[in-house]
C-alpha cells in the first residue's frame, strides 16, 4: 500500500495530540515532520506536548519536531488557555533527553517540499504563521505542496473565540489570508462550525468509551481531552470536539467526506470586530474558488477511525507521569 | 381592543408591500405613518409602490407617506434590483392625484415620537438611514420609541447580498450601527438567516394558494412577490421569503415568536469584505445585550396570519393596471 | 456696498467667539444665523459662549442661535477642554433672559438655503456634523450654498489633536468626509498647519497689543484667548492661534489670501491611527479637485483686520461678570 | 581606524546604487552583504543593478548579493518604474559570470547577526519585507542588530507615491510596522520629506558637477540618476534626490546629522487612503519613543561626501555597456 507523506503543522494541545497520533500510527501515513507554531498554549508547553505525544506512541525521536514562529505575523499572540489549560492533560515526561531539530520550521517546510516537489501534503491545525512565512520567503512554496488541509474558520456559522471567528484564523488572520490566496493547488478546509460541531463531536458517553479501551493511548486521550470536553459542555456543546484529528483523518481517508463544495474563502484582516472571520462565498457569488470546504463527514466512521488509532497497543519510550497504566 | 400605534420605515418593494398591508389591515394595528428610505429599488419607484399598496387596500390618503433619506449616511446607494426588478410586480395606478406628506421622514419620526413619547413603535424594514438621521439630530429619539423591530442581519449564518451580509444592513452599515447602539429600550431583530429561511419561507404551492384566495389583495400579493420567489428559487431557496411582513407580524402578535435571546449585535463598518455583516454575540461572550434576536417563529401560524390579511376584501381606490380583477 | 449673507456653524469657544464678532461687526457681513455643533467644550457652555459673544457686541437677540447636533454622526464626542478650559475666559452674563431659536440647526441650514438658493455662504469652524446631517437629509443642500469655508485639517503637515489630525476633522471624520464629497460648488479650506501657524499666529506682544485697545471687545478678546495662548506656548507654538476668525475673514475679504490651490481632499475614516487626518492631494496625483486649500494669507493684514474689529466700540446688552470695564 | 560592519538591504535602482557605492568605498565601512528586496523595479533588474554597481566599483564578487523576498508580506508588489525606468540608467554588463549567494536574504540576515550579535548595523533602503520576515522567523533578531537606519516615511509632510505616503513604507506597510515595533535598540529614520527634499537634493548644476568628476563612478552616477532628476523636476522638485545614499552616510558619519528627535512612529496599515503613511508623533503626545527621526543634516557636507565617493578612481571588473570611459 502506498503511503501518504505528510507534515503536521501544529500548536500542540489536546486534539492536536490526537491528530499527531493519527499521523504517527495510521498505516497509510508517513509523517515526515512536526512543525510547531504559536497558538493554543505557551510555546514551550506546546513543544513538550508534542514530545509527550510521540512518547506515548513509542515513537520518540522518530519524527523531527521543528520549532517555528513564536508569534503571529503582525499581532500579539493570544492563547486559548482558558479552553485548554496547558493542554497537557496534567501529564509529563522527563525532559532531559528531549531534543528538537536544529532547523527552523519554516526552513523545514521549504526544504522538505523542495526535496520532493508535489509529493508532500501538509495538515495545518494551528494558526497559519509558519506556512505564511514560508510563502513570504519563497513564492514557489505553494506549488510544491500536494494537498494542504487546513483546520480553520467557520462556514457561515458561529465562531469559537469570538462570535464570528474561529481561533486558528483569529490568532493570525493575516497569515490565514496569505495562505488562502497563495495558490495552493489542492486546498481543503475543515471548518469549526457547523462541520465539527455536527459531525465530529463525541458526547461524553462516547468520549468515555474511547477512554476505556485499555491502551496507553486511550488513557492519554481521555486525559488530554478532559479540559476540552469540560469547556465544551460549559458553553453548550454536547461533547468533545475533534477538528484537528478530523483534519488528519480526511487527508488520509478522503472517503470520510460526504459533502464538500468549492468556495471563495477570505479571512478578515481589516476589522477588529470581525478579526479572523472566514468569509466563505458559495457559488451564487461567482467568485474564483480557492478552497474546497468540507461540509459533512461520516461522523460514525470517524469515531470508529479514532477508536482504531487509540486501540493501537504502544509502549511509551519514557514513563509518563500522571498516566495510569 | 387596544391598538398598537406604529410607523413603518420602508424601502417599498415586494414583501415591504405585504408588510404595509399587515400594518393597514390588521385590526390591532394603528398605522400612523409610512416613512420612505433608500433601499431596494429607485426611490421614486418605492414611493409609487407605497401608494400602490395603500390603493389596493382601499386606503389611499389615509396614512401619510413621508419621503426620507435618498442615500445612505456615507455610502453610495446600491439597489437590489437584480432581486426585485422594480418591485412593483408590473402593476401601476394613475399617479396624478398621488401626494406625499410635505414633512421629511426624519422630521416625522422626530415629531410623532415627541407628540406621544413611549407610545409609538417602529417597524424598520429597509436600510436604517432615516432612523440613524433621527438619532443624529436628536439623541433623545431612541428613548421615545416603545418598540423598535428591525428586519436586518443574519444570526451567525449566511447573508444574501454578500456571503456574510444581509441587504438592509449592507446598504447602510453605519446607520445600522448607530441605531443598534442608540439605546432603544425594546429593540427586536428579525434576522434574514436562519430565521426567515427556515420559518418564513413559503414553498411555491403555498405561495400559489395565497395567490388564489380570490381577493384583490391576493392577486396583488401573487404579482408583487413573483420576482422574489423566482429569484429565491434560482439561488436555492425553496419558496418566497417574507422577512418584512414577518417583522410587522411579530410586533403585532408577539405570540408568533417561539424562541428569542438577548444578543450583543454590532454591524461591520470597518471592512469592505464584511461590510454590513451583523455580529451577533451570544451569552458566552458576556457582552452588554442591546437587542433581542428572534430565533424561531411559528411558521404555520405566520402563514395563516398572512392568509388572513390577504383574504380581507378591499376595494382599490383607483383601478390597478395589470391586476386581474 | 453689497453685503455677504452668511451663517456661522460653530463649537463656540475662544477663537470661535472672535470669528462671530467678525461676522457681527464687519460691515460687509450679514450674519443670518449661528448654528451650534458639538466640539470644543460642553454643548451648553458653547451656547452660553455664543450668547456671551453676541452680548459683548451689543447684539444680543439680533442673530438667532440654533442648537444642532450634540454628538458626532458615529463617534462619541471628545472635547478639547484641555486646550480651552470651558472656553468662556471666565466671563459670564445673567442667563435668565437668553433664548435660542426653536428650530434645529440642521433645519435652519436647510430652510435658510432653500429660501435663498445660491445666496448664502457658510463658515464652518467646528466639527462638520450639522452640515453632514443637512446633506443626509437633503442631497440638494450643497448646491444651494454659495461659498463654504471650512476650518479643518492640515495640508500635509502636523495635526493638533493627534500627530496627524486636526481637531475639527478628528471629532467627526465621517461628517467631514461627507461634506467634502457632497459637491459644494465653492469649497474653501483653511487648514490648521502650516497655514494658521505661519500666517495667523500672534506672538504674545501682538496679542497683548490687541487686548489693550481699550474697548469692551478688546478686553473680551484678551480674556477669551488667554487659555489658547497659554496652551499654544506650552506646546511650542509662539502665540495665539486664530484659525476660526481667519476663516470668516477670508470669506469676507478674499484679498487676504495670497496663495491657494485646488486639491483633492479626503478625510480618514477607516483607521484609528490616522482618524480625521486630511489627505490633501496636489496636482501631481491628477485626482478630481474638490476644494481650494488656502496656502498663504497676508498675516499682517489679518492682524490689522482683527484689530479693527476689536477696536469697534460696543455697549454690551447685559453686564459681563469678569470683564473689567 | 575601526570600521563599521554593515549590511545594505536594498531594492537596487538609482540612488540605491550610490548608497551601495558609499558602503563599498567609504574607508570606515565594512560592507558584509547586500540583501535584495522587492521594490523599485523588477526583481531581476534590481539584482542586475546590484552587480552593475559592484562592477563599476571594481568589487564584483567581494560582497555577496542575497536574493530576498520578491513580494511584500501581504500586498501585491507595486513598482516605481514610472519614476525609475528600469533603474539601470541604460547600463549593462555581461551577465554570464554573475552569481548571487545561495542563501536567502532573510537567512543571511539571521545568520550574520547571530554570528556577531550586537556588532552589525543594517541600512534598509527599500521596502522592509526582508527585515520583517527575519523578525517573524526569529523574535530575537532585533536585539542582535547594532544600529538600524531606515529610509522611509515622511515627518508630518508630503509623501511621494501618494499624497501622504512615501514609497518604501507604502509598498509594504505591514512590514514597516512590524520592523518599527520590533524593539530595535538603535533605530534611526531618514524620512523622505521634509528632510531629503530640503537637505539632500542636488540642483541640476550640482548634479552635473558630480557627473563631471572624470571617474567611472562619476559617469555611472550621472547615468543612474538621470531618470530620477528628470522625474523630480517634472513634479516640482528642484534637483536629484538622495535619500538612500544619505541613509548610508548618516550611519557612517553621524556628524552629518544636525537635528534629530525621538518620535513614536507608526505606519498605517488599516486604511487604503493613507496606506503606508508614517505617523510621527512628537513629544507633545507622550507616546513611547521607538525611533530617532533625523530632522536636519549638513547638506553641503553630504554633497562633499558623495563627491568624494564618486571621485574615487576604480577599475570596473567587466566592461560596462553604455558608460563612456
Ligand atoms: Ca490546533
Ligand atoms: Ca424592505
Ligand atoms: Ca471652532
Ligand atoms: Ca531604495
Automatic annotation (TrEMBL), chains A, B, C, D:
<dbReference type="Pfam" id="PF01156">
    <property type="entry name" value="IU_nuc_hydro"/>
</dbReference>
<dbReference type="GO" id="GO:0016799">
    <property type="term" value="F:hydrolase activity, hydrolyzing N-glycosyl compounds"/>
</dbReference>
<feature type="domain" description="Inosine/uridine-preferring nucleoside hydrolase">
    <location>
        <begin position="6"/>
        <end position="304"/>
    </location>
</feature>
<protein>
    <submittedName>
        <fullName>Purine nucleosidase</fullName>
    </submittedName>
</protein>
<dbReference type="InterPro" id="IPR052775">
    <property type="entry name" value="IUN_hydrolase"/>
</dbReference>
<dbReference type="InterPro" id="IPR036452">
    <property type="entry name" value="Ribo_hydro-like"/>
</dbReference>
<dbReference type="InterPro" id="IPR001910">
    <property type="entry name" value="Inosine/uridine_hydrolase_dom"/>
</dbReference>
Amino acid at each position: 500500500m502506498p503511503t501518504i507523506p505528510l507534515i503536521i503543522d501544529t500548536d500542540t494541545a489536546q486534539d492536536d495530540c490526537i491528530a499527531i497520533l493519527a499521523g504517527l500510527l495510521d498505516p497509510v501515513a508517513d509523517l515526515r515532520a512536526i512543525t510547531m507554531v504559536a497558538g493554543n498554549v505557551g510555546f514551550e508547553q506546546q513543544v513538550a506536548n508534542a514530545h509527550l505525544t510521540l512518547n506515548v506512541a513509542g515513537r520518540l525521536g522518530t519524527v523531527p519536531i521543528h520549532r517555528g514562529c513564536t508569534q503571529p505575523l503582525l499581532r500579539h499572540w493570544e492563547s486559548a488557555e482558558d479552553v485548554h489549560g496547558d493542554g497537557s492533560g496534567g501529564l509529563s515526561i522527563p525532559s532531559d533527553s528531549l531534543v528538537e531539530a536544529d532547523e527552523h520550521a519554516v526552513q523545514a517546510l521549504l526544504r522538505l517540499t523542495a526535496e520532493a516537489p508535489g509529493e508532500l501534503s501538509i495538515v495545518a491545525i494551528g494558526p497559519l504563521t509558519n506556512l505564511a512565512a514560508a510563502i513570504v520567503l519563497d513564492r514557489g512554496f505553494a506549488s510544491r505542496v500536494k494537498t494542504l488541509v487546513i483546520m480553520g474558520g467557520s462556514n457561515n456559522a458561529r465562531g469559537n473565540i469570538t462570535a464570528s471567528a474561529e481561533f486558528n484564523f483569529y490568532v493570525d488572520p493575516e497569515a490565514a489570508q496569505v495562505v488562502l490566496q497563495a495558490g495552493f493547488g489542492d486546498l481543503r478546509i475543515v471548518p469549526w462550525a457547523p462541520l465539527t460541531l455536527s459531525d465530529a463531536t463525541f458526547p461524553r458517553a462516547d468520549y468515555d468509551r474511547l477512554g476505556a479501551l485499555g491502551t496507553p493511548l486511550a488513557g492519554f486521550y481521555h486525559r488530554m481531552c478532559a479540559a476540552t470536553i469540560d469547556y465544551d459542555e460549559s458553553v453548550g456543546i454536547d461533547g468533545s470536539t475533534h477538528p484537528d484529528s478530523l483534519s488528519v483523518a480526511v487527508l488520509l481517508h478522503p472517503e470520510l467526506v460526504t459533502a464538500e463544495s468549492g468556495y471563495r474563502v477570505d479571512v478578515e484582516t481589516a476589522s477588529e470586530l470581525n478579526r479572523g472571520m472566514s468569509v466563505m462565498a458559495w457559488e451564487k457569488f461567482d467568485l474564483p474558488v480557492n478552497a474546497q470546504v468540507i461540509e459533512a463527514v461520516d461522523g460514525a466512521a470517524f469515531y470508529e477511525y479514532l477508536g482504531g488509532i487509540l486501540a493501537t497497543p504502544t509502549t511509551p519510550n519514557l514513563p509518563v507521569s500522571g498516566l495510569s497504566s
